[in-house]
Amino acid sequence: MPRQLIDFDIRLAALLVGITLSTLDASALQLALPSIAAGFHTNAAAVQGAASLYLVGSALTFIPLSALAGRVGTVKVYRVSLLAFSVVSLWLAMSPNLATLLTLRFVQGIAGAGVIGLVPGLAAATFKERKGWALGMVSASVAAGTLTGPPIGGFMVDAFGWRSIFYINLPLGVLALLLSGNLGELPGVGLRESLRRVLGAPAFLLALLATVLFYAQSFGTNIIWPFYLEATGLTPSKVGLFMSVPPILLLFTGPWAGKLSDRKGFDRVSWLGSVTLALSSLVQGVTGRVALGLVGVGLGRGLFQAANNAAVLGQAPEETEAIASGFLSVARVTGQALGSVIAGGMWGSLEHLGARHAFLVSNLVLGCLAALAGVMIKSRKKVPPVPVDTVPEAG
Asked: Which residues are in the Major facilitator superfamily (MFS) profile domain (predicted)?
């Protein structure tokens, strides 16, 4: 096998294992929370902090870590983050009490920000000529981690106890660390200057806004599906099977859609994804047939995600690619929080009128979010790039 192809595969594997590590950890933990509560003789509300504090730690450090990576080296920060994530996982497995576990989860969230926040940018920098495809592979790996986390976590907890789920991270973290020595670097000019440039780049901000709207629609749809399906008489286990359809579709369509966007253009494919998402919400809302929505949303996510991520990074002003990768993660978290508030609030206020009515209205609103994402995509095509020397000074 040619040396170039070996390096190509190893570099991709370093990124895919890293992103799978973080998503697998998050999804597996959910299965362990009841056992953690029992082990520390507390309740579900107390142990839920193991999930939320991780998210808080990540959210607070996406931008600072990305800016630091642009100055000291993106690959260096990525590798240190992988090492820290693995070491903290070992400490988590040995937590003597709940307070220690919660503190370590916050610290692990900071380390996780250096993995999740940098992988998209590293993929685009390492595979410049095929970044749509590379980001499609990243999206597929996220889907794989989300799908496999619950069954792996459930098996580990049943067979070895809740502490064992943290040991899953050790071999994956070490493997990603060993493979990650030859990745492409992302340029950066420091936090203040990077913020000055990206905040003065309308096309980049429109691309980020489209990302927020996409994740709000996706996360909101994930929230209303269980409520509606259980109201129709399905058991939670059957609902779980139904909801595995979109990530399975994303797993297989993500790389294909990313490759398509390399040929046809990132804006064109991501816009097609937003239209597919909007129509899927409309159709399942009007007809009440969730199967149509599951397939349509899964396909729409595959079309949108990799292409839009590539567009976000491509619209970043010169020498801000590192912090742009962090902003991409901030947009994802913001969209998920927005979708949770919108969908949860709508369902709570409309449920008394009947599940069918609540499902219709919720889908109409969520479909509008996807349509707005498409508007943002069309709008950013009309915005000329802003030269670095014309960006206004911050403050």
From this structure: 11-381
